[in-house]
């Protein structure tokens, strides 16, 4: 992987919570124009990895470079280079859509006049909900607002933690299109997901994470081809067709995680 | 590599604007926080000749400061932390101190509003007037008193994560300060308690306020109360900030 070209470079990252090792010495890079997926069962270490990159948790060892900035040495530069949508994004419940847009445009230093606000509202189809509070929006509307806020400053790296959880198929497809539009503009996307369909549909490369370690990194289709004839994969496959989910279950095990 | 960090003052202004919008949306609870000292001041009118205007005025401001610091600040901080609102702000390129400075600025605005309101009501309803120096010194001492209760609120959110428990704790502390402070100060709970009350956050703040209304009565005991108050601020805020977690997980 060309580290100098990568928008995100994670090297030998470990995250501990007390004696528990949530992330164990993982390394990966995300290139410009790439959608990179982090897949793993519950508690695998996906969100801990993202939180370390975002500066929300202290990592015990390793280095994280975002667009050339070390997240420890230059945290504000690194944060300015990334856009973040957290797993359960919420805003102050008293603020309406316009106020939320104004708050984050101010925080990210993006001048936003009334026309700018209207343009964004039109783009995310929230013109009629401009003065509604965040909690009064539907799941799809909340996700559209969250995504536009995470990209309001046109970051080179966008990080999305399970962005389509709880969305109906229409909203999910719409969100995929928005994520793909970010890629087309030459920016990179790092996302976590439980949906193998999503990973197959939009990710250029995926890393399967389990017990805090990266088991494998590859293109979704290449992973399927690589493991197509593995006995474990064939054993878990349904209806005779090998899918990414079959590969994922074969690699991470069948037991249900908390 | 051409990423520029937004100016902190731009971010701070955006945070302040949003926090004022939240205050406006929650105006009913803000009014209720201001109402308690106003009700006390009005209901104590018959007692003013006996207790003195400075006593009533300082007690009313102290109760208001408690409500603002304990309930206005700590409950909203605990709620926003629990909902992940702080985490969303922290992933932005804004220094974390700016997030809290904005929150504190709102509470300082409330303290200013409270003090002015109490001055107006006391003058128009109870007929109590202070000298210009009295008004000015009381106004600034109210901020120090407010800092004592804001730092106590910070200590509570530093020690307790659950927003419901924070809510209950602040109300209990508020109730204890009012009941024990007020009755203890009057000697109803015994001389020993009366003595300790003077050194409590309630007694120290109230003494500072009462004396600042009549600056000519400033004594060494008042200076001790100021030092004790500063000590409380440093202790509560120091421990509260050190123990504070930005999320509840």
From TrEMBL, chain A:
**Start and end of every ABC transporter domain?**
8-236
Task: Tell me one GO molecular function of this protein.
Answer: ATP binding
**Is ATP-binding one of the keywords?**
yes
Please name the InterPro entries in this protein's record.
AAA+_ATPase (IPR003593), ABC_transporter-like_ATP-bd (IPR003439), ABC_transporter-like_CS (IPR017871), ABC_transporter_ATP-binding (IPR050763), P-loop_NTPase (IPR027417)
The keyword Transport is assigned to this record? yes
Keyword line: ATP-binding, Nodulation, Nucleotide-binding, Transport
Q: What SUPFAM superfamilies does its record include? A: P-loop containing nucleoside triphosphate hydrolases
Q: Which SMART domains match?
A: AAA (SM00382)
Please name the PANTHER family in this protein's record.
ABC TRANSPORTER ATP-BINDING PROTEIN, ABC TRANSPORTER ATP-BINDING PROTEIN NATA
Family (UniProt): Belongs to the ABC transporter superfamily.
Give the protein name, as stated in the record: ABC transporter domain-containing protein
UniProtKB/TrEMBL annotation, chain B:
Its principal location?
membrane
| Domain ABC-2 type transporter transmembrane intervals | 54-237
A Pfam family recorded for this sequence: ABC2_membrane_3
Which UniProt key words apply to this protein? Answer: Membrane, Transmembrane, Transmembrane helix
Please report the organism this UniProt entry assigns to the protein. Answer: Pedobacter kyungheensis
Question: Sorted alphabetically, which InterPro entries does this protein's record hold?
Answer: ABC2_TM, Nod_factor_ABC_transporter
Q: List the transmembrane segments.
A: 30-48, 54-76, 97-121, 133-160, 172-190, 218-244
Membrane topology value: Multi-pass membrane protein
Cellular compartments per GO CC: membrane
Q: Where in the cell is it found?
A: Membrane
User: In its UniProt entry, what is this protein called?
Assistant: ABC-2 type transporter transmembrane domain-containing protein
Q: Name one GO molecular function term.
A: ABC-type transporter activity
């Amino acid at each position: 992987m060309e580290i100098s070209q990568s928008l995100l470079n994670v090297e030998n990252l470990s995250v501990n919570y007390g004696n528990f090792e949530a992330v164990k010495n993982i390394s990966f890079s995300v290139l410009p124009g790439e959608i990179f997926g982090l897949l793993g069962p519950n508690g695998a270490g996906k969100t801990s990895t993202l939180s370390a990159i975002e500066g929300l948790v202290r990592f015990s060892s390793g280095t994280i470079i975002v667009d050339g900035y070390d997240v420890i040495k230059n945290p504000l530069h690194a944060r300015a280079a990334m856009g973040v949508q957290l797993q359960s994004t919420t805003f102050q419940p008293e603020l309406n859509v316009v106020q939320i847009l104004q708050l984050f445009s101010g925080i990210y230093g993006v001048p936003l006049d009334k026309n700018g606000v209207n343009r964004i509202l039109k783009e995310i189809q929230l013109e009629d909900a401009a003065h509604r509070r965040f909690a009064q929006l539907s799941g799809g509307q909340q996700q559209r607002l969250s995504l536009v806020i995470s990209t309001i400053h046109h970051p080179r790296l966008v990080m999305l933690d399970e962005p389509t959880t709880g969305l109906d198929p229409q909203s999910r497809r719409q969100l995929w299109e928005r994520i793909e539009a970010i890629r087309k503009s030459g920016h990179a996307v790092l996302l976590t997901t439980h949906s193998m369909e999503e990973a197959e549909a939009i990710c250029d490369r995926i890393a399967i994470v389990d017990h805090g370690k990266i088991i494998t990194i590859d293109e979704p289709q290449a992973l399927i081809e690589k493991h197509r004839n593995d006995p474990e994969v064939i054993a878990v496959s349904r209806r005779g067709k090998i899918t990414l989910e079959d590969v994922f279950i074969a690699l991470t095990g069948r037991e249900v995680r908390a | 590599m051409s990423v520029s960090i937004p100016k902190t003052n731009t971010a701070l202004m955006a945070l302040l604007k949003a926090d004022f919008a939240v205050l406006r949306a929650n105006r009913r609870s803000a009014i209720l926080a201001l109402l308690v000292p106003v009700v006390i001041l009005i209901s104590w009118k018959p007692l003013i000749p006996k207790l003195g205007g400075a006593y009533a005025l300082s007690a009313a401001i102290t109760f208001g400061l408690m409500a603002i610091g304990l309930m206005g600040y700590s409950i909203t901080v605990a709620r926003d932390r629990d909902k992940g609102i702080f985490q969303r702000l922290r992933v932005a390129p804004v220094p974390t101190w700016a997030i809290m400075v904005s929150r504190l600025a709102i509470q300082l605005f409330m303290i200013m509003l409270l003090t002015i309101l109490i001055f107006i009501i006391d003058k128009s309803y109870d007929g109590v007037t202070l000298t210009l120096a009295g008004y000015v010194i009381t106004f600034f001492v109210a901020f120090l008193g407010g800092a004592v209760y804001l730092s106590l609120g910070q200590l509570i959110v530093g020690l307790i994560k659950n927003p419901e428990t924070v809510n209950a704790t602040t109300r209990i502390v508020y109730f204890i300060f009012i009941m024990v402070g007020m009755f203890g100060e009057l000697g109803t709970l015994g001389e020993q308690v009366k003595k300790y009350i003077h050194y409590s956050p309630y007694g120290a703040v109230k003494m500072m306020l009462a004396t600042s209304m009549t600056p000519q009565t400033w004594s060494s005991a008042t200076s001790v109360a100021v030092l004790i108050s500063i000590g409380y601020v440093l202790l509560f805020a120091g421990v509260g900030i050190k123990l504070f977690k930005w999320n509840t997980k």
